[in-house]
Amino acid sequence: MSAHTIRKKGVRKALFMALAFVVVAVAILPNAWLALTSLKTEREAFTMPPQLIFRPIVDNYVTIFTRFNFDNYLVNSLMVGLLSTAGALLLGTPAAYAMARFRFTGKRQLSLYVLSTRIAPPVLVILPMYLIFGSLGLLDNYLSLAAVQIAYNLAFVFWMMSSFFGELPEELDDAAQVDGCSRFRAFWRIDLPIVAPGLAATAIFIFVQSWNEFITALVFTGNATKTLPVAITSFMTAQGTLWGPMAAAGTTVMLPMLVFGLAVQRYLVRGLTMGAIK
């Protein structure tokens, strides 16, 4: 290999590393700034030039958990996230298996129709669903918000899991049925354990989306079931914005997902790369 080729590869690698550093910095700096602001007094937060060395305080966190009952909103977000994730997987996974394994007329058209429910913006269905749940007395309820998010996430589960099931050889099911398994037992005992990494990756995406959902949560929740993203708006009052508590609230919303993402990172990578290597 010539010296010119080596230098060219070195320059290309350096440019790639510099670009990667810029991308990471753009992603991390706003979150780091938010966390630092949550540990400052309001005066320090607006000091120019910004103070990078200061005495951290936890008053803003004490305020959001004592004065604004942020622990209740944390539980609400967790409940809605678990319900919507479990419901979407419970309904979408068998449907994805059926789409991957069975052949029937209109299969492609049905797949595109399911996808169209994901393409459509949630705003289109908020009003009719609000009227339906209002007539049933289900507003300000975990089930109503979870049902809306399940309906919106079903298409995502359907397409993700159908691709994972489609990568499995059909001979697995044939062999299981020869050994006496029913179609459902073959799905439950053979196929589902194999695609478990993909199922975990899908569950992670759904839970994160549910945790960060704002529009539907704003419409369908009240004081009893208000989630964290909606609760953050409580810091914008008629007297002004409470920047310190708002920064602490934003950090509180972000931190569990950061820890959760680091904890399940290997499952996410395994799920997303499943079937990439034959």
Automatic annotation (TrEMBL):
Its main localization is: membrane
- Return one Gene Ontology term, BP aspect: transmembrane transport
Domain (ABC transmembrane type-1): give its ranges.
Answer: 74-264
Family recorded in the similarity comment:
Belongs to the binding-protein-dependent transport system permease family.
Transmembrane regions: 14-36, 78-100, 112-133, 145-165, 186-208, 242-264
InterPro entries, A to Z: BP-dep_ABC_trans_perm (IPR050901), MetI-like (IPR000515), MetI-like_sf (IPR035906)
Q: Indicate whether Membrane appears among the record's keywords.
A: yes
Q: How does it sit in the membrane?
A: Multi-pass membrane protein
Localization of this protein = Cell membrane
Q: State what protein this is by name.
A: Transporter
Q: What range does the record give for the signal peptide? A: none
CDD domains in alphabetical order = TM_PBP2
Annotated Gene Ontology cellular component terms:
plasma membrane
Keywords attached to this Swiss-Prot or TrEMBL record, sorted alphabetically, are:
Cell membrane, Membrane, Transmembrane, Transmembrane helix, Transport
